[in-house]
Write a structure and sequence with these properties.
heterodimer, A: 330 residues, mainly alpha, MetI-like fold, 2 domains, 14 helices, 76% helix, B: 615 residues, alpha+beta, Dipeptide-binding Protein, domain 3, 5-stranded antiparallel sheet, 20 helices
Chain lengths: 330, 615
């Protein structure tokens, strides 16, 4: 009963937060300088069209640009939102935003979830290793490596991976999600192509997050190792496995918070990674919709991110008592 | 212990990855028809490949590929002087009436859609109605079209208007662009979108009667409906049709019903889409692409791509960059000042920084690309043009003659005010941005302090220009093909001239009817030519019947006068002529075309003409 009340309170708070942030986003996005038609015309010209061609290509798009007064647009937006209708795209001439966002989201989820899991597992493993062996040269070297990787901007990692593995060695595709030669379906060729195309972006995501996990987990484990209850446990002669469980449960708490938020934030897409690898996820969608001033798509993408982060926070709050008895007792 | 655990985790992962890599690398090519195992890979920098987006050429963001699956009647050959030079598309031949007001087009015999149904005159008539609905046809004074028989159609000019039907009806569809132009779509698929009264609505929209507004509104709404229409499958009359696509690639397979299918020696085309030059360069360097166009190229990237085994091919682009002046603003209303600036600006140095790979310094200021000069001038006339070779002493002399003074390294206007220049650069024009740094350096050194400002995106930049906000500005000139479009970039609507013949009217800057920012005098006196009315001459170019030798000869005469006028009057300082650039990779294919006419087209046109064979 108490849990249900707590859940209901959190959901109500979450809904209010969604409304506040969606409203702020709606007005901020519309206040962005420029307009979709001019942006499209400029983009067409940069792709080689003559000014006249670009103007005629753009003319028809005006039919999909909302023209009502701002308050009316806002009321319409909220009303449609209540009916789970995110509107239609401007740049993609009438295509529903929900379709565009839903098409992009799975690619980001695949990329980000594997990236988060791999970077978490490898980073935390290395962090624990460096914490336990903190007086050795190996630990020093790994810590230095972790700090270095953590400091390299993600787009540099992405470009280096493309340059080495796609351009020079040509053992992985440069971008995209799957070879169009493969027949879609549950067959080895198609699934293999999906994996091969995901290797470099996932590796990039993993490398980008690995250093932070390693350094954070090292710090967390070292802190726990210095606690009196660990010393007491050692003196009591507990088995190493039991000791490791003690350390893990306590060191896990700060990491769990970061992990939960990471999963929530993954819907914001790995903007640079998706851009460099031409991976059509939410990050690339955000960039494209900012470039084309596609306000409805921007609103839709932001809304998804907001909802995901709020949900992740709610789930994390609800999960804390399960992994930390102190919170449960309080 | 921890290291062992790590191995336990990573070894299976590595094994799984290896298995999937092997599985992916062993994929089989698609099948179907002859040459089914021959796959050509190229790139579509303009079309954003989007699963779910309509395969409808009238949709601005559609999944269509000009010359591969989307067809026009003809492809613009890019001839600098004669826009009638077309490459056949769905039209096999065409002829212009004696008065130049109607154009009869004969369709390719045996032309079929990819479902086996024939391409008919009805398809062309219905497609023409859609051009009107999309706002395309009225823009070039098309009046209507009728089917003469199942394979012949006749286009007519709008009442009271005259325009070049070859250029507008046939030539709008350039094989190297994806703009929503004169696409031919199947009537059996799109015809249902057209209301029964569409032609009476079009007629009303072209007239001046009371129903004009309602007709225009009805056509606009029809245009949106057509643009949003999404056929379930790709129905192509071209050499290929879309089999499938994903977020970054499209697979097109050979259309066995294409009218020239026997000439096509490629079974599949993989169309890549990558959004950045970095990605296109990477694909070229890894030899993934058999050919690719490239826009905005740096010398170092060009060197890397060529070093990776790609061959650079270029052809004139029929467009040039220039610095334009608003002659309503002093001192740019003085021809001596404009000439002086032409002597100060070193075109070679500016182009070297601005467009080192896809541009060549203009020979001089003429309003047309240098490659088109032989079309308009004799060698003797060409050599008589002022080349405006860099000469600051000459510039100083001209400015002093114009009443300007130089004090302590700073030029002062006749009214005593210091002369400064602010040069805005439209957003996204990185070549202009780079070149502006050289211009600033040259003008600063000469005594005209110059400021480079970041302007808005091109459409807004133009609006600011038309509103008279930029006395000195970057401008694109010499947009061919044909003399009228070329010189209209200076003495057309941008100088306030709208209409042709007796309806030619001139508007002032700020008038919504025109886009006047040049504000040149109505008449000028040009040494060796006499008194010239450049706006009137330019408008006259639009009335010439370029289907005849007499029309072409008259065009040459008028164009030569305009070239000499621009060379003397310097309404712009022409800096560089653009060059179109593409790369071909000969590892898998041979027999690429060599003529610049074909190189300027998309590879679908090459294949329809019988080029490209697998090694």
């Amino acid at each position: 009963m108490q849990l249900a009340r707590k859940l209901a309170a959190k959901l109500v708070t979450g809904l209010v937060m969604i409304w506040v942030v969606a409203t702020a986003t709606f007005f901020l996005v519309l206040e962005m300088p420029g307009n979709p038609a001019l942006a499209q015309e400029a983009a067409d010209m940069q792709h080689g069209m003559s000014p006249a061609q670009a103007a005629s290509a753009t003319a028809v798009m005006f039919g999909f640009v909302p023209k009502q007064p701002l308050p009316d647009q806002y009321r319409h937006y909220l009303w449609q939102l209540l009916h789970f209708n995110l509107g239609v795209s401007i740049a993609e001439e009438g295509v529903p935003v929900s379709h565009i966002v839903a098409s992009a989201a799975p690619w980001t989820v695949i990329l980000a979830s594997f990236g988060i899991i791999f970077s978490f597992l490898i980073g935390v493993t290395l962090g624990i290793l460096t914490a336990i062996r903190r007086t050795t040269r190996l630990a020093d070297g790994l810590t230095l490596l972790g700090a270095f990787i953590n400091g390299v901007p993600v787009f540099v990692i992405a470009i280096m991976l493309v340059f080495v593995f796609a351009t020079i060695l040509a053992i992985f595709p440069q971008g995209g999600t799957v070879s169009v030669l493969e027949t879609p379906g549950w067959n080895a060729g198609y699934l293999g192509s999906l994996v091969v195309h995901a290797v470099l972006p996932v590796a990039c995501y993993t490398l980008a997050g690995l250093g932070a996990w390693q350094l954070t987990s090292k710090s967390s484990v070292i802190t726990v190792l210095g606690d009196d209850f660990i010393l007491a446990a050692e003196l009591r002669g507990l088995r190493p496995l039991t000791l490791a469980r003690y350390v893990a449960r306590n060191a896990m708490l700060p990491l769990f918070t970061i992990l939960a938020i990471s999963f929530g934030l993954m819907f914001s897409g790995a903007v640079f990674i998706e851009e460099v690898f031409n991976y059509p996820g939410l990050g690339e969608l955000l960039i494209a919709s900012i470039t084309t001033k596609d306000f409805p798509v921007l609103d839709g993408a932001f809304l998804l991110i907001i909802v995901a982060v709020i949900l992740a926070n709610i789930l994390a709050d609800l999960a804390y008592p399960l992994i930390d008895p102190r919170i449960r007792r309080s | 212990m921890n290291i062992r655990r790590l191995r336990v985790i990573t070894l299976p992962l590595a094994a799984a990855t290896a298995v999937t890599v092997v599985a992916a690398c062993s994929s089989s090519p698609s099948s179907g028809g002859s040459y089914s195992n021959v796959t050509f890979t190229t790139i579509s920098p303009n079309t954003v490949i989007t699963p779910g987006a309509p395969m409808n050429p009238f949709n601005a963001t559609s999944n269509v590929f000009p010359s591969f699956d989307s067809m026009t009647l003809a492809w613009n050959a890019g001839n600098s002087a004669d826009p009638n030079q077309e490459l056949p598309g769905l039209a096999q031949s065409w002829s212009l009436s004696a008065n130049g007001r109607s154009l009869t087009v004969h369709l390719q015999p045996g032309a079929k859609w990819s479902n086996g149904k024939p391409v008919t005159a009805t398809d062309v008539v219905d497609s023409t109605a859609m051009w009107f609905a999309e706002g395309l046809a009225s823009g070039y004074n098309l009046g209507g079209v009728k089917a003469d028989n199942s394979t012949t159609v006749t286009f007519t000019q709008a009442p009271g208007a005259f325009d070049n039907l070859f250029e507008t009806v046939l030539g709008e569809g350039s094989g190297s662009s994806t703009s929503t132009n004169d696409w031919i779509v199947p009537s059996f698929e799109y015809g249902k979108l057209l209301p029964a009264n569409v032609w009476s609505t079009i007629a009303a929209s072209l007239g001046t009667g009371s129903g004009k507004t309602a007709a225009v509104t009805a056509l606009t709404n029809l245009g949106k409906k057509i643009a949003a229409y999404a056929p379930k499958t790709d129905i192509s009359a071209g050499p290929f049709y879309i089999k499938r696509l994903n977020n970054s690639q499209a697979l097109l397979v050979k259309n066995p019903d294409f009218y020239a299918a026997s000439k096509v020696h490629v079974g599949n085309v993989i169309m890549e889409h990558d959004s950045t030059n970095q990605q296109i360069a990477g694909l070229l360097e890894s030899s993934t692409l058999d050919t690719s166009p490239f826009v905005a190229m740096s010398s170092s990237v060009n060197a890397q791509i060529v070093a990776a085994g790609n061959k650079k091919i270029t052809w004139p682009a029929l467009v040039a960059s220039a610095i334009a002046f608003d002659e309503n603003v002093a001192p740019y209303n003085n021809v001596l000042v404009r000439q002086a600036l032409a002597y100060v600006l070193n075109r070679t140095a500016i182009q070297h920084v601005g467009e080192p790979v896809v541009g060549t310094p203009s020979k001089t200021t003429i309003g047309a690309v240098s490659a088109a000069l032989p079309d308009y001038l004799t060698p003797a006339q060409e050599s008589a043009l002022n080349p405006y070779s860099p000469n600051t002493a000459k510039a100083t002399s001209l400015l002093e003659s114009a009443g300007l003074t130089l004090k302590s390294g700073q030029w002062y206007l006749a009214n005593g005010q210091p002369w400064t220049i602010t040069l805005p650069v439209a957003q996204g024009f990185s070549d202009w941005q780079d070149a502006s740094s050289v211009i600033k350096s040259e003008l600063d050194s000469f005594g005209i302090p110059t400021t480079i400002t970041a302007g808005p995106q091109w459409p807004q930049y133009q609006l600011n220009l038309f509103a008279g906000q930029y006395p000195v500005a970057w401008w694109l000139i010499a947009l061919g093909p044909g003399a009228n479009p070329t010189f209209s970039r200076i003495y057309g609507a941008y100088d306030g001239y709208v209409g042709v013949g007796s309806s030619l009217t001139r508007y002032a800057t700020g008038n919504a009817a025109a886009k006047n920012f040049f504000n040149t005098p109505n008449t000028v006196t040009v040494p060796g030519v006499g008194t010239v009315n450049p706006g009137s001459l330019t408008a006259k170019l639009a009335e010439l019947q370029l289907g005849t030798a007499a029309g072409l000869a008259e065009q040459k005469q008028i164009a030569s006068e305009l070239v000499k006028t621009i060379n003397y009057e310097v309404p712009v300082v022409q800096l560089w002529d653009y060059v179109s650039l593409a790369y071909i990779n000969g590892k898998r294919f041979t027999d690429f075309p060599t003529s610049t006419t074909l190189l300027g087209q998309n590879p679908g046109v090459w294949m329809a003409e019988g080029y490209l064979a697998a090694k």
